[in-house]
Fold these 4 entries.
Entry 1:
Amino acid sequence: MRLRLFVFHHAGGSHLMYRDWPAHFPAGWQVRIPDAPGRGPLDARPPVADTAALVDHFLDELGPELTGPFALFGHSMGGVVAYELTRRLLAEGRTLPRWVGLSARAAPHPGGEAAGRHLLDDEALRRELLSMGGTPPAVLDDAELWALFAPAIRADLRVAETWRPDPAAAPLPVPLSVYGGTRDTTSPPERLTGWAARSRHFLGLHLFDGGHFYFQNDPTALTAQITRDLRHALSLPAPPAPGILR
């Protein structure tokens, strides 16, 4: 079955960490890894620091492709994008994804995110990013590179840390899978379990050995589980057509 799988990157990231992922999925699947604005020296667009505006951006950029069978996966901040993009499609009566996967993103809770990394001074933020992994050391150690990438990192972290989803939102009518690292101190396993209440078709929480970027050295185990979960979701009845959603 032909399918579009959209992979949304983490805060401060880009498609580069995920560039090898297409080779890990079935040949009939088209894997798209869109970048948020403001990635690197060749992207003159200003970074977006507001969740709704970032969803607007991806909806405008990807809108023509969000048809037919497609699925969304997001890691960390990318999980916010995948979830909120699905909610926006639902609210607008548009075609829904056949599956949503969220990785290393704590489930919504009334207090929101406690961390304020986007407000830290440069030195403290670089230390925090070094401990989390996922950001090339060259960016953290080089003053010119840091000045280039810091605005996007801060904007993305603000999206992740100020996100406040609607607490009254009904569970998604879309199959949902959640993934995480057993040693992740940013989004620990116990903070992932709450996603079960956010979908009518929760496909489970899958944990892998490692921290926040548990798949960075080898994504094979994660992409294999995504493939299994997505194939299972595709075997289920498709979400209701636009206009008849409840």
Note: The longest helix spans residues 143-162.
Entry 2:
Amino acid sequence: MTPAPPDHVVGRVSAVLRALSTRRDGASTSDLARSCGLARPTVHRLLSALAEEGYVDRDRHTGRWHLGPELYLLGEAAAPRYDVTQQARASVHRLAAATGESAFFSARRGDETICLLREDGDFPIRSFVLYEGARFPLGVVSAGLVVLAMLPDREAEAYLSTVDLAAEWGPAHRTAEIRARLARTRQDGYSTNPGLVVEGSWGMAAAVFTPSGEPGWALSLTGVESRFRPDRRPELGALLLKEAHSLTNLLRTGRTRPAIALG
């Protein structure tokens, strides 16, 4: 589903940079235009201007665009205020080591979750749905599901009334089915994604809360379906909840630099 194009320059620039951030191997001008719902000449003008400032870079051999060095420097400058990945890294490592699955840490940013950390366990078969920098709308993948479930009912319903996730992610993401998964997530305390994005690739997640009590992040596990048997899921859920609770407490008690959620 092509998004509605932003109606101002800052919005268009932001849309192009966000789209580019999801392309680990870079993207062509046409690819970015389709992703943003903008005309190709418009995107090319924006990219050319961004390249002059160092915000994007173009591979001279392939013609593909990549995020530029200036964004890296800006990110380094912003990290002390927003970054909690150093604190989350230990939890991600423990989850991967204890389960053998791939473990992740994702942040909420507006109506999306963004994967910030990944560590693979020792089980040889892995899922690659999630990777560092991957973005998904709330309600999609286990991280987006648990964050949406832990929002106040009014906020979650307001979001669901404005999106059509089924149009892009398939009939399993119809609003009624998402509501049912939200109810189950609230009951369990953790979310389960039974291969809804990629068949056979399962995921589970628990929310990490800001000091003010908002779901700002999520810890998750992904793997093949056979590793998420009904008898094992409660064990995985308990591990996720334990690490999410510990990380929430770490952020709340001030034993680390105060963090501000990205949402």
Note: The chain has a mean pLDDT of 89.
Entry 3:
Amino acid sequence: MLLAQAPDGVPTITRGDDLAAILVPVLERMSWPDGSTGLADGDVVVVSSKIVSKAEGRLVAARDEAERDSVIEGETVRVVAERARPDGTTLRIVENKLGLVMAAAGVDNSDVPQGTALLLPEDPDASARRLRRGLHARTGVRPAVLVTDTAGRPWRRGVVDMAIGAAGVDVLSDMRGSTDAYGRELRTTVIGVADEIASAAELVKGKVSGRPVAVVRGMGHLVTPDDGEGAASLIRPPEEDMFRHGVADD
């Protein structure tokens, strides 16, 4: 059984806040169908990158469109696509310093003070590991942690949440070498389970509801004692990226 819930009561996060210290009392109030409360081993704590960035002081000045464009340019490694909007601004899909391909390099102007913008965490995997250690120190439980952000996908409408930071969870499930129901060997199937957990959590949390944290229970088989490779391993390397040039040479 897969269960997910996003508790109320997370306060406004500001620079220098200890996320683990703030989140533990909120998470401990959660009640589960089996009568248990709080966190348990095997849980996955899914945290919006926004509150991680706020705690890490990633707020920057963006007082007008030109300054915001400058911020985006500073986070950009490679421009993937551009499109003019009806209001005269330009939508830019870029590869940012983390290797993520996102609109506006992941720079966010929502739910921040006027005249500012929020950058993604500098190292989301390190952020996830740090939060995992903090949760373990305060609860005795060692859950997995995902740091997530929303992004669009090629050929699909709508955005989904995806893992940009991970600690203590297998981010990929490699099915290659196993067989399907008809006995055929699977040769290419590798499932991005960290992104699937992130999307499941987004169904119960989200910026509109004011719930930036969710706990997903039932995926304990993917939770690991060690922190693991992190979400950076989900980024497809250039030599495998068929979208980079539109064609792939053998």
Note: The two ends are 43 Å apart (CA to CA).
Entry 4:
Amino acid sequence: MKTSLITIVCFLLALHIHAQNDTLRNLDINLENYQYPFPVKFLLLDLQGEKLKMAYMDVLPEKPNGKTIVLLHGKNFNGAYWEQTAKALTKSGFRVIIPDQIGFGKSSKPVHFQYSFQQLAANTKKILDTLNISSATILGHSMGGMVAMRFTLMYPETAEKLVLVNPLGLEDYKLKIPYQPVDKWYHTELKSNFETIKTYQLNSYYDGKWKEAYTHWANLYAGWTLNKDYPGIAWNSALTYDLIMTQPVIYEIQNIKSPTLLIIGQRDRSSVGKNLASLQDQKTLGNYPELGKKANTLIKNSQLVPLDDIGHLPHIEDFDKFIKPLLNFLTDK
């Protein structure tokens, strides 16, 4: 009887957690009222005159293989969306580190902060140093791909391998998109709500094909728009738009020496600020089949895995297609 009661309580708790993930509700600025899939730790940082907290998850395998992988999130997401990936990797023996970059997820949202990919990479490196991890595979998706490339260029001795999953930054956006002041990005972000977020993700990520599972991630961002502190989120989002637009990494990726895997969804045509470009340039921006081939040529020690009929989020859209080449690459000596 006691065992049955415990089972029922666990079941109800699981239902509650599932409900919190899939229901649109007011989320506070640091997601303190949203439960991540794994325990969250915080790294204290003193940066640019502010005391900040950088959240991260350190997921340990039951049977360690001695290898570590760092999973870096995209701009419109946070570390929580790596849950399924982390479970598969730890099952294969990998220790998994999942940071929330400053300005994202459960990490601090600074009032005054000059964002740079160098600073985000340095913050990530400090987590590894704190954990006494001297070598790791660095995996980045979307904007996280730009952080991952910068990290690998800055710390080649630490980046044992590099994995890029539909990364931003494989082209120089400012060549085709007119400069937008931070204030303009900010006022655009202030207008966000669930419908605008869903529409953007539907068209940019999923090619007009919405699945109920995607609502989870739209709600997680849209929940912020219901909070009184949303302007702070919008301001940090505006600053990171400016970061992506003005700090290209494409001109340096030929200097990457780490063995690199490019996992590229072939249906992806997403690009930050694409709607601001001319109609002619909109046709050429975000052409991931071509961008993947170009990166594969520039990064000498790299391999390209094109995923047919997959968009900007391979690990969300079709996990099986995503995880198989990743595990093959990680276990290939």
Note: The chain has one domain: 2-331.
